[in-house]
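Is this the right way to post structure tokens for a design question? Let me know if I should format differently. Anyway, here goes:
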């Protein structure tokens, strides 16, 4: 590997393309440098003098990709030659973020790329900024899938990730006058140099039609068909040990242009089939508040799942030749309920195409499939109106009925009563008949796992109570994790260097070795060095916010951060209410020694989620008022950073001092942001919810700030006649804060804007904002006291970093591999 040669650090003018040019390094070009130049000329079509920044960006990726392809092909060959078992991870989301820095780091080529670009006066960090975030996910579910794919490659486990190649993804968020505005995310506008189209992996996906019986075999005759074509992206593991495949599906019509209709003047009608196909891969989670949106979501889920299952079965038959050995060679993991129809699709292929007996097919299906549940929210456990499901997927509906009859007979033999059988059934009969996709995934899998210890126990007690009684050995726990490569080494190189200097390099290969820092937790010099890195990260974030939003922040203040999907159960509203109370207290009691705080929010609200979008507006209304009030000076600032994505998280998380993980207890499955913040030395303020429970166990009670009701206490309150109005009237700070919000103090242009939002807290307070306010407020003052003691805060910071190595996705995937997939 070539050594990096430093370049001049003085300010230099930008090129016409907008990139800073540095004085080139006066040394002979390296082999990698020569390769980049060849790629620039022969694939990008530019020479060095004419090339613009985006040309160098593409050339850099193509040159790196050449190195990756060799490892990719080698990995695939090793799998074929060994006849090993493959893992197939099906997910609606893969929030992979930018790949250039990730791939360079994992291939061990960062310094080579830095030197090669520096030879042309270019800076790698600036080149990296040209890469758009892939719009393939929205939140924790998708980011977890991305971390898992990287860990699968790191642990040398052959794997494919399967999903949809969204053209526009969720949406690009813009804030106009404080309101969220949804715009198309055009990440593919200039192509994607990472991907490879695989025309040979094309499958026909049907919808609608009828089912006939021919020679005692069911034959589905779809009324409509589209083609799914694979587009592959390499996923590089740490140190390039293995390169796995992220296979995403794009859709096209069988007859994309009806030429006769076009020439007859019906231009729109001539393209209607292609438009219909294109809608399948256009947007992630289209709004389902109407019948058309519901249908599109079901079409999307079946489209990608059917293509994936057909691809898995085709590959197995190509290399093994015997469908009966599928469970020994393939492990299909369903990431939440979205791909649950895979159970019915796999059964269709086994019974109708490979003509197995139903019982044999059912045995193969259950031994092949496993299912991860990510939520206890009833609305997130997908169900589909039975008429819609039967119209779109008539053969699958027949198969689901057949499965259901077997399951219900089994339940009756096991002594289940009518109520239990009704809960177990794959068909919800309580109102409009609906197909329960979570139940289908549960009965069609040999393993059903939760993603945190608390979540797994609550699964047994709530959403899957009766299924758990029927199959008591099926539910298990696999607490989530995050990849330390992206979420420590790459996003926080300064902290990584300090840790390396302190304990050596073993933690780079095994995050559990971060525990060696415990012996140095009270070391003042180490605490000072980590604090210096944190400050530098805060300065960098301040610069980014100033450049993008025009807001000046104080890097010496505590950075108090809540960045995640906007949802009522995640309680950004509770944070904002306490912010208003703090604002009021600072103004009322200027004589107190207040800790300067910067409250940072970011996240997207689903486009049809009114209250979540209203919370975003409230955050911006409070920010406008607080940030322009000279009476609070530099003691309090509020900022809502727009268009939250992976790249923004990589800037904010290393700069955070305090991590807000304040969901209503019992409602967050796990969380992974809590792990990323702790890994980067932020202290957690949170409820005993999701993985917070296990983080507390690992870092110690004195290094985390816990408040609020437990999950059991929340359930008791909801069942016991909780009267939030009494709680509000008993708390002066809470009642004043809610009054300020509801009366229009922060919305003088529309004084009633937040009346309904606040009224919901008075009326039912389902998410326990009032119930937890006093405890939360007291916990914040506890944080203030700890912040004032620098040595104590720094020691807690080190303890957090030292003790969250267990939350590596390598550990999580290792547990999946041993306990569920049986590949290690």
């Amino acid at each position: 590997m070539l050594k990096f040669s430093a370049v001049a650090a003085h300010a230099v003018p930008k090129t016409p393309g907008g990139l800073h040019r540095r004085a080139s390094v006066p040394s002979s070009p390296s082999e990698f440098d020569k390769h980049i130049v060849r790629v620039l000329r022969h694939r990008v079509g530019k020479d060095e003098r004419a090339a613009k920044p985006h040309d160098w960006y593409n050339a850099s990726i193509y040159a790196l990709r050449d190195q990756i392809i060799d490892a990719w092909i080698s990995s695939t060959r090793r799998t074929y030659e060994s006849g090993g078992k493959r893992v197939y991870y099906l997910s609606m989301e893969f929030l992979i973020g930018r790949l250039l820095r990730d791939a360079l780091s994992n291939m061990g080529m960062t310094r080579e790329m830095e030197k090669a670009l520096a030879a042309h006066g270019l800076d790698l960090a600036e080149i990296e900024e040209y890469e758009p975030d892939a719009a393939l996910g929205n939140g924790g579910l998708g980011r977890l899938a991305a971390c898992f794919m990287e860990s699968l490659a790191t642990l040398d486990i052959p794997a494919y990730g399967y999903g949809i190649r969204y053209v526009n993804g969720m949406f690009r968020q813009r804030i106009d006058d404080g309101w969220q505005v949804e715009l198309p995310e055009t990440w593919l506008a200039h192509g994607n140099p990472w991907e490879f189209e695989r025309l040979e992996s094309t499958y026909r996906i049907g919808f609608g039609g009828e089912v006939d019986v021919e020679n005692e075999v069911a034959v589905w005759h779809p009324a409509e068909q589209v083609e799914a074509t694979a587009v592959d992206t390499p996923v590089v593991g740490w140190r390039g040990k293995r390169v796995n495949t992220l296979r995403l599906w794009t859709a096209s019509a069988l007859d994309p242009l009806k030429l006769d209709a076009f020439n007859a003047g019906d231009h729109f009608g001539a393209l209607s089939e292609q438009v219909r196909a294109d809608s399948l891969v256009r947007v992630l989670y289209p709004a389902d508040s109407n019948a058309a949106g519901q249908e599109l979501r079901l079409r999307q889920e079946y489209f990608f799942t059917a293509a994936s299952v057909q691809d898995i079965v085709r590959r197995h038959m190509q290399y093994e030749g015997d469908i009966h050995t599928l469970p020994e060679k393939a492990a299909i993991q369903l990431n939440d309920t979205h791909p649950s129809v895979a159970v019915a699709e796999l059964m269709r292929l086994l019974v109708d195409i490979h003509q197995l007996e139903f019982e044999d097919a059912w045995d193969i299906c259950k031994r092949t499939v496993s299912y991860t549940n990510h939520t206890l929210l009833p609305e997130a456990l997908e169900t589909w109106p039975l008429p819609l499901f039967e119209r779109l997927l008539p053969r699958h509906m027949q198969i689901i009925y057949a499965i259901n009859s077997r399951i219900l007979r089994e339940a009756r033999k096991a002594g289940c009563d009518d109520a239990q059988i009704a809960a177990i059934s794959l068909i919800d009969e309580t109102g409009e008949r609906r197909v329960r996709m979570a139940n289908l995934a549960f009965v069609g899998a040999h393993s059903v796992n939760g993603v945190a210890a608390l979540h797994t126990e609550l699964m047994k007690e709530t959403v899957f109570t009766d299924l758990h009684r029927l199959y008591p050995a099926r539910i298990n726990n696999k607490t989530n994790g995050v990849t330390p490569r992206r979420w420590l080494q790459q996003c926080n190189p300064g902290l990584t260097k300090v840790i390396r200097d302190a304990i050596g390099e073993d933690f780079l290969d095994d995050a559990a070795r971060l525990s060696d820092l415990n012996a140095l937790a009270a070391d003042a010099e180490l605490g000072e060095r980590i604090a210096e890195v944190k400050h530098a990260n805060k300065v960098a974030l301040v610069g980014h916010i100033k450049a993008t939003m025009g807001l000046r922040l104080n890097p010496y203040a505590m950075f108090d951060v809540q960045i995640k999907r906007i949802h009522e159960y995640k309680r950004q509203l509770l944070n904002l209410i306490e912010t208003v109370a703090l604002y009021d207290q600072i103004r009322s009691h200027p004589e107190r020694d207040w800790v300067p705080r910067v409250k940072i929010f970011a996240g997207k609200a689903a486009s049809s989620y009114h209250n979540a979008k209203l919370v975003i507006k409230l955050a911006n209304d409070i920010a406008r008022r607080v940030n322009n009030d000279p009476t609070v000076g530099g003691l309090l600032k509020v900022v809502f950073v727009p268009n939250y994505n992976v790249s923004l998280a990589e800037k904010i998380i290393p700069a955070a001092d305090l991590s807000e993980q304040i969901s209503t207890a019992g409602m967050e499955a796990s969380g992974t942001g809590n792990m990323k913040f702790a890994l980067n030395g932020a202290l957690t303020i949170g409820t005993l919810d999701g993985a917070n429970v296990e983080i507390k166990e690992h870092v110690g009670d004195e290094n985390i700030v816990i408040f609020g009701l437990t999950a059991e206490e929340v359930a008791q309150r909801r069942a016991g006649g909780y009267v939030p109005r009494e709680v509000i009237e008993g708390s002066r700070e809470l009642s004043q804060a809610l009054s300020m919000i509801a009366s229009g103090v922060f919305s003088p242009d529309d004084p009633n804007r937040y009346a309904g939002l606040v009224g919901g807290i008075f009326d039912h307070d389902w998410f326990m904002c009032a119930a937890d306010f006093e405890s939360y407020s007291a916990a914040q003052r506890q944080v203030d006291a700890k912040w004032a003691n620098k040595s104590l805060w720094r020691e807690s910071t080190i303890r957090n970093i030292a003790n969250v190595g267990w939350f590596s996705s390598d550990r999580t995937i290792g547990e999946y591999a041993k306990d569920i997939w049986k590949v290690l």
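Format looks fine. Someone answered above. Worth noting: The chain has three domains: 24-82+99-132, 86-95+136-380+445-480, 485-807. The chain has 34 helices and 22 strands.
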